[in-house]
Amino acid sequence: MNPVLEIDGVRKTFPLAKGKLEVLGGVSQKIEAGSFISIVGASGCGKSTLLRIISGLETATEGQVRFHGKPVTEPTIEIGMIFQESRLFPWLTVKENIRFGIFKPSPRDDELVREHMELVGLSDFADALPKQISGGMQQRVSIARTLINCPEILLLDEPFGALDALTRIQMQNEILRIWQAQKATMLLVTHDVDEAIFLSDRIIVLSNRPGRVKKCIPVNLSRPRDRNSASFIAVRREIYQEFFQDSDLEVEYYI
After folding, report:
1. What's the rounded Cα separation, in Å, for the pair 99 and 60?
2. Domains and CATH numbers, the chain
3. Which residues contact 1 (CB under 8 A, 6 or more apart)?
4. How far is CA 221 from CA 121, 143, 212, in A?
5. In the chain, where does DSSP find H-type helix?
6. What pLDDT digit, counting tens, does each position of 68-127 carry?
């Protein structure tokens, strides 16, 4: 099977007043269609930068990202992105924010908005403003707004990082349900190792800056996953062993 996404020798440097800062040191990966992949690593190792390059929002200094064999040179509706902040328009209602995401208006717009509000469980809040709903619900609106264009790949840049622990777990279950319903390919950047194990088919561990692929860890656990099971803990231990090889790495560990 041909990969839906190929990351080929991607490097990224940023100019500084004196010299340059190398953030990504040559990342290569092949991503299969319909898979759920998480990327973990220390702060500053280039995780979010890599997602922005994949999305077309950022250009690589060297290397290339290919979507179905074609280079990604600019943003496209086939590759959607969810950020840590919901980035909703505060003056628009839930349904209006979702409708705003539609790239090509059609006579089915009202039906599409209803379907996606139902998908994320917000049908009863269609006329609410962002300030009237919780942070987790705001992220659901953001997810629906991106999914309404039926992207083949969904990039998630720490989308639950600003949520409290309980809401975060609830949203992990929600995104898993949506992934299973939509059959999209998902790439998640997270600092939360347990979140990565709970959601992913495979976890990519990046080294400290400049980020390189240190190890790819398959997560061969049946779903739904028990965070307290011996097999779950074994995967967690394997990931932490990779991090603890570098004494300056700090990874969040949620229980």
Report:
1. 32
2. 82-191 (3.40.50.300), 214-246 (no CATH)
3. 32, 33
4. 27, 26, 26
5. 47-55, 94-100, 109-119, 135-147, 165-182, 193-199, 230-244
6. 999 999 999 999 999 988 899 999 999 999 999 998 888 889 999 999 999 888 999 999
